[in-house]
Amino acid sequence: MTIFIFTLLILLGSLLAGLVGSLTGLGGGVVIIPMLTLLFGVDIHYAIGASLVAVIATSSGSAAAYVKEGISNIRVGMFLEIATTIGAVVGAAVAVYAPTHFIAILFGIVLIISAILSLKKRNTTTISKSQGKLGTWFKLNGTYPTADGTVAYDVVRVPAGFLMMIIAGAISGLLGIGSGALKVIAMDNIMKLPFKVSTTTSNFMIGVTATASAGVYFQRGYIDPGLCFPVVLGVLAGAMGGAKFLIIGQTSWLRIFFAIVIGFLAIQMIYNGITGKL
User: Fold this and answer.
1) CA atoms within 13 A on the CB side of 230
2) Looking at residue 250, what DSSP letter applies?
3) Range(s) of the domain holding residue 54
4) Could you point out which of 26, 52, 154, 252 has its C-alpha 20 to 30 Å from the C-alpha of 34?
5) Taking Cα atoms as reference points, which of 156, 102, 90, 157 lies closest to residue 129?
6) pLDDT tens for each residue of the chain, 278 residues long
7) Cα(104)–Cα(107) distance, rounded to whole angstroms?
8) What is the rounded CA–CA span in Å between residue 121 and residue 164?
9) CA dist., res. 193 & res. 196, Å (int)
10) Helical H runs in the chain?
């Protein structure tokens, strides 16, 4: 296979990954890493490095729009980024020394959990009105625009959310994915932010978390420009296409279909990890 054909195939695969990530809310990394390792035989460390660069690119583009609309809670995001960055650096440092089969097995397990969480129906209307002392002290409470006007909300259980963010950051650094599902759990289920605020703030944070992880991978030589270039282009194009499709199409059946595909990829990653093929 020539370099041109190899690059073209990765570009097309990344395009599909970005589309899947956009439609399911799981992010392109859940498809990019299995694709590169299982189909193209890329070392999992280089695959994670390329995935992190793609996460930075996609998060930076979409986060700007949400911030402009006033949906993302910047104070919550910047506060919790302290936790995710700490976790990301630790996770990335462990990943560069961890056996590849261990990373593959853990990645498969996280894929299965993320697919299940993506299918779970969430309450998008409940607003917390029980003021938390730390949320008030750090001025984390906020408002966001809705069709019925501006809605205020309070942030509670800040320490528990901070701890979950450390775990999410560690998984992001270890596996090269945005771990948005865990970030949303921390803000939506634990800290009781409105779901729309949780998802957009998570998107705002993912890029910073990935940057911290990517620094460690870059230092170890696992960021390959020749691999990252087609991956980033493909994921960006796929994510943009998926965002437009979300506006005009019904995606509930797509989420089920892609969850099945992601589950299959997870089983393949776990199997290859256990048998030592990765």
Assistant:
1) 18
2) -
3) 3-274
4) 252
5) 156
6) 789 999 999 999 999 887 776 666 566 677 888 889 988 999 999 999 999 898 887 776 666 666 777 778 889 989 999 999 999 999 988 988 888 889 999 888 988 887 777 666 555 555 555 666 788 888 888 888 877 788 888 888 899 999 999 998 898 888 887 676 677 778 878 888 887 788 778 878 888 888 888 888 998 899 999 999 999 999 888 877 766 665 455 556 666 777 787 788 889 889 988 988 77
7) 5
8) 21
9) 8
10) 3-24, 29-34, 44-69, 74-95, 100-119, 133-137, 158-175, 180-184, 195-219, 225-248, 252-274
At which residue do the structure tokens 């890493």 appear? 33
Q: Structurally, how many domains does the chain consist of?
A: 1
What is the sign of the dihedral through the CA atoms of 146, 151, 157 and 163?
positive
* DSSP state letter for 124: S
**One-letter identity of residue 70:** G
Could you give the CA distance from residue 264 to residue 252 in angstroms, rounded to a whole number? 19
Around 91, how many Cα atoms within 13 Å sit in the side-chain half-sphere?
33
10: tokens are 């990765």
